Amino acid sequence: MAITKTWEINTLERELADGYVNKVIYRVKGIDGSEEKARATGEVELAKPDTLVPYKDLTESTVLGWVKTKLGTDEVAAIEKSLEDEIALINTPVEATGKPW
Question: Which helix (H) or strand (E) holds 91?
Answer without folding.
Answer: helix 73-91
